[in-house]
Amino acid sequence: MPDAERLGWGAVRYWRWRWIVLVTVLVALPIIVHFSRIHVVDWVIHKQIYKNVASPLDEELPVTVTAFPSSINMVSTIGGMGEGLSCSLPWFADYFFEKDVSRIAVRQRFRQACVFHDLCYRHGLATYGYTQNDCDDLLQEQALRICISVSRKPSLTDCRIDAKKVAAGVKLGGFKDYRNWDRSTFFEFDPNPYRSTRFFVTRAIDDPFKARDPDRHRNDPDQLLMMFHIQRGGVGRSCINCGERKMAQNEVVSAGPEMSSEEPVWLPPGRFYSAPHIAADGDGGSKLVWVLRLRLETSESCVAVTDAMKVLTGTLPKMSGCYKNANPRLGLAQVDLLSSSPQFSMVSSTPPDPRALPSIVVSGLTAQRGANLHICNSGDMREGLDPGSDGTCIKIRDFPSEIQKEDKWGAFQNFPIVRGDRHIYLLRTMLPGQGKAAGGSIYPLVLDVMNNNTAGSSPTELEPLPQKTLNIGEKYDPIMPIATERTDMRLMSVHREKETLDLSEIDLGLPTPELEPIKLSAVNGGETKDIVLHRSWAHRPSLVLESPALGADKKTQLVISRSKVTTRDRKDQSRNTPVDSVQLEFAILERPAARGGEKTFRLVRGFACSVSYTVTKPHPIQLCRRAAMPPHDTELATPATRLQGAQLLMGRFASGGSALTLALFDRCYPNSPIIFGDSVVPKELELSSPHVERRVKCGPLGSVESMAKEMATP
């Protein structure tokens, strides 16, 4: 054989073997990866990236996000920016998790932790000052709680590894979604914000002085704006629109004439402090309820109840403990409801007694009492409880067979809806075989909880009201109530589509509930036009309220708003000082509150405001003395970025009148919120301090067509 021919066959044999080796590697590699993927990923994440993860010190489920009402007329605040709630994990994440015995996909298994994380990314900074790292750490902690309490994992080590993988997956798949100062907006969702160093919330309360002496206070606003400054060391309060008051003898306890200054609320020390809940009392006043976690290693809570008058005039205690009679101006009790996110409710007597005031009861779901879910109730907290009065826990019977036993708890991803003794939890479920439809259905867990202090004996078991699994996708979350009546089970969703913001509602009280679109309209020149909303209207939370009128005159009110920081490299040319600015738009829509009536919301009022801050003495550190200038326009808070995401309330805040007004809170002018309404539109308002001057210009909202477009930049 010639040399050339021998060389040719040698080359063929050489390349043949190379192809055989290459094909073998390509076939074997996926097999090796398939069997080693979990162990390799576990080793990298567990040993190299996250060396440790804090273990929970109790066996309770993670928190269920909580809705805090800001006024007694508030039905719900709908946050989430219309983007749905889900686990922002990469599409291949399931591949690196072992399936537990219930065969639940990781996005469903850890959904409750992911929902908190979504809200933390979107609203945590503006509300609690949460950094991205705070949100990620809380996700890891809550994922670990889920694994320990629900999943069938063989050991704590396995759960720790899974929690680390969830945190790593979310950081990989959703780290860009964290909202910085230019996009974060105020929305309360954390029932125990223990990682926050300080935050501010405002509550609208009916004026208790005016209720006692209407003639004396006839020129005062019907509702007062009370701001609470919540720190790790305690809670302070100030009244924004009280002004100076000459107190009557029956009003004075320890309050001075100027109630706008910050004074402490004497809650028992040594707790994790949170914002107060607010409710309309049966005797015509406003009740404030604090549920304070004692420590992280137990689920004990200190519950404090008082009324607005006492908070305004003084809450000095006799002793520092959390028990009845330690503070004559607070109803106090330390109770263990075995829950990480207990809820309060006002429960009327059974049968109803028009002379009896409702009981204030705190309840919580727990998994610590065995295989079945339980709900634990406190006694009546109006006057506090005697020491040792722990909660009464009631077993919840198994859910219907359509909810598989292995997944009977689902994920309590939505806010608990508490209306008196009726509690509604929306459980996201994924039954085996659903595949990509995971999270595409909701099971409403509806409980009629009898207060153990009312007439009759308490039940030992609760059977959920019969409900059907509803085919509702994740993009509609959160789904919130639209009415305050206990038996009215209508819920609303605010969700973004490609370029629009859509609203939908569902009535769980119907035999076959279905999600239906809500229409919006406006009367323009005698002609009724449909309103199309641009998706930017989802940036700020939507408010759902009920008017105080009764019967057919009662209205459901929807308040939507949007904002945009418009700071450019601007300066006040006369003084060569930086100018920080923001544009805001607000729309108020109404429809009859009665169930089965008109479903279309009609535009009744709209406002557009431009707010600018002239920084006369700039400072790189202090919030109110800097402007949103490139390249750090989102990394640091400025007056404009804080105002674009500030808390919004609706109520009767104008002096001498009962017209509904809006109040937007300004951290740089804490005692001067921007208040506007029918008769109170600050067409042009200027305020100045030693370091920054604020100028507000407001006018009517633009055309209906402009609501379908992005906000215009002046």
Overall description:
- It is a single chain.
- The chain is of the alpha+beta class and 714 residues long.
- Among the domains are: 1-45; 77-177, Phospholipase A2; 192-293 and 302-333, no CATH class; 519-714, no CATH class.
- The chain contains 8 helices and 34 strands.
- Strands 1, 22, 23, 25, 26, 27, 28, 29, 33 and 34 form a 10-stranded mixed beta sheet that branches. A 5-stranded mixed beta sheet has the order 10-11-12-13-17, with no helix packed on it. Strands 18, 19, 20, 21 and 24 form a 5-stranded antiparallel beta sheet that branches.
- Helix 4 (132-149) runs antiparallel to helix 5 (156-174).
- The protein is globular.
- 48% of the residues are buried.
- Residues 34-38, 432-439 and 451-456 have low confidence and may be disordered.
Give a short overview.
The protein is α+β, with helices and mostly antiparallel strands and 714 residues long. It contains eight helices and 34 strands.
Distance between the termini: 87 Å
Unreliable segments of 5+ consecutive residues? 34-38, 432-439, 451-456
* Radius of gyration using CA atoms only: 28 Å
Task: Supply the number of helical segments.
Answer: 8
Number of strands: 34
**Biggest sheet record:** 10 strands, mixed
**Mean pLDDT, all residues:** 80
User: Share of helix among residues?
Assistant: 10-25%
Structural class: alpha+beta
Outline type: globular
